[in-house]
TrEMBL record:
Record field: compositional bias (Polar residues): 17-28
Coiled-coil regions listed in the entry: 68-95
Region annotation Disordered: where it falls in the sequence: 17-37
The name this protein goes by in its record: Uncharacterized protein
UniProt keyword list: Coiled coil
Length: 128
């Protein structure tokens, strides 16, 4: 393939080849030349087009590969954020449970105090 590519470069430098996508119809109907190795100018134009197509495919592939890497990086970043938020939620659940325990203790103390107050008032009423 390297020899063909070198031959393509050599022939294109002599003006034999060009980009078939930019040829006018008059240029594409040029006289067909046959070279010593049996290839024709049409073969070389086809090869040039194939190389152009491969270059475009490579460029597209590299762009898609870059986008895939960026997407993977973003996913990793979002997973880190998710882990952090899950940790925060766990901490909040613990605080809520602790606060609920404090509320339960406060309610129990209020019941005890109310019972004491009721008992004291009953004793006071009984003494009068």
């Amino acid at each position: 393939m390297k020899d063909v590519h070198c031959e393509l470069i050599h022939r294109s430098s002599q003006g034999i080849l060009g980009n078939p996508l930019t040829h006018s119809s008059a240029q594409t109907t040029h006289e067909r030349k046959t070279f010593a190795d049996g290839t024709t100018s049409t073969d070389m134009l086809d090869l040039n087009k194939t190389l152009d197509d491969l270059a475009k495919f490579k460029k597209m592939f590299l762009k898609e590969e870059k986008m895939r890497r960026q997407a993977e990086e973003r996913v990793a970043e979002l997973e880190g954020i998710k882990d952090h938020l899950e940790s925060e939620i766990t901490q909040l659940h613990k605080r809520v449970k602790s606060n609920q325990n404090m509320i339960d203790i406060y309610d129990n103390l209020n019941k005890i105090n109310k019972t004491k107050i009721d008992r004291m008032q009953a004793e006071k009423s009984a003494n009068q």
